[in-house]
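Exercise 7. Predict the structure of RNA helicase from Rehmannia glutinosa.
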Amino acid sequence: MACSSAPHLRSFPWTSSTKPLCPSFTRPNCTVPLPFNRTNRMLDSLPISASLSSTCVGESDVGTTKNTRSTLRELCQGHVPDHVLRRAEEVGYILPTHVQHEALPVLFSGRDCVIQAQTGSGKTLAYLLLIFSVVNAKRSSVQALVVVPTRELGMQVTKVARMLAAKSLELESEQQSCTVMALLDGGTLRRHKSWLKVEPPAIVIATLRSLCQMLDKQILNLDRMRVLVIDEVDFMFNSSKEVSSLKKLLTTYSSINNRQTIFASASIPQHRRFMYDCIQHKWTQADVVHVHVNPVEPMPSCLYHRFVICGKRERYSTLLHLLQSDAPQSAIIFVGEQSEKSKKAGHAPPTTLLIEFLKTSHEGCPELVLLEEDMNFNQRAASLTDVKESGGYLLVATDIAARGVDLPETTHIYNFDLPKDATNYLHRAGRTGRKPFSDSKCFVTSIITAEERFVLQRFENELQFQCEELLF
Ligand SMILES: Nc1ncnc2c1ncn2[C@@H]1O[C@H](COP(=O)(O)OP(=O)(O)OP(=O)(O)O)[C@@H](O)[C@H]1O
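Solution. The predicted structure, encoded as tokens:
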């Protein structure tokens, strides 16, 4: 079969190789080649059983299990140690969210799993409960590894893991709690090296760069690893800096035969193709399960999407007007990254300009906080602490805050600049509506020029939501 479809295949985030996946790319346990001249979308629309030996749960169950759900304890009983379940209850995790209800039985069955569910739906707790069901606190070896794209997300996952591992108020004397290490960019890895050598922690939460440093120097050993989680998997495969290390981690540093592999994200573009690649490249076992919750509604239903059209020069005053009329207690304003050209010309970053503007023009403004890539790790950590400790905030951020960051008090998102694609829109919007059992409305408002209307329309089509125009 001719490889004329190679340009299509190159665009898959999952296969960074420019080498086309040629006719030898056949179904597992099957010699019939896949139709290579199909478009990516057509491959996505294949019935999953036709292209994979994996299975998919969740899609047909949408909305049917919400009211008849067992408690988190009932779901986890016999798998997760009692002291962990007590801790979960102490911090308020009583009922499972929809994705936890769908994913936990699959996870406990030991099968590899791709978890795809809306932002803020509780994927983190789902995979952490699996981890606690598997690790043995008495064993001194790394038994579970969670890989995350950013330090901020790593700190958040570590916090939840440590909260579950902490001594339960009721069972204090009996339990042995397991150790959780955060191996994140920007940390002082010297201390971690001696920790890893003397007494390896049971659970490691790592960014890829720091992890690979330890693996390359053979300070960290994954021979006893039983669970590997890759969070925000589509982002990780899409990052040209990370993808080769990620593939090495999945196939060279560890093997699917010794571990259970979990991938999680709210967005997995061309998910059927991804599942296919998982099997072909041996990132997962062939019977990997796709838990896909709410596929027809990729964003939480409590989000209310709006847009305002204005000229480029009126964007500041439009934002000010919106802030004054909405009066949000806690909001995130997303600003595009500064172009290299603008940096070279010595211009101030757009985030700084906006903060300066709001400081001088917005009376009664909640605490103004900045979060962007160019800040050092300590400044970034300080910003997030400020936000969490304040009674209300306006966080001005670049897309560094768009993935995984959990600030449940956020009720309003403003796209001062439009995100670059629909996936980014979904993750920015998903920084609000993060209280799983609340129906309160949250608002996502994009400030656009008339020419940008069609871009937003494209996002609406792709993500199946409706955006209402605000007229001032
Ligand atoms: N069972 C539960 N009961 C109550 N709250 C929960 C439960 N599970 C998770 N949460 C809360 O829901 C919020 C979102 O959870 P989490 O960060 O895991 O979402 P996520 O699905 O990973 O989102 P994203 O895709 O944006 O990273 C958190 O504040 C978490 O504490």
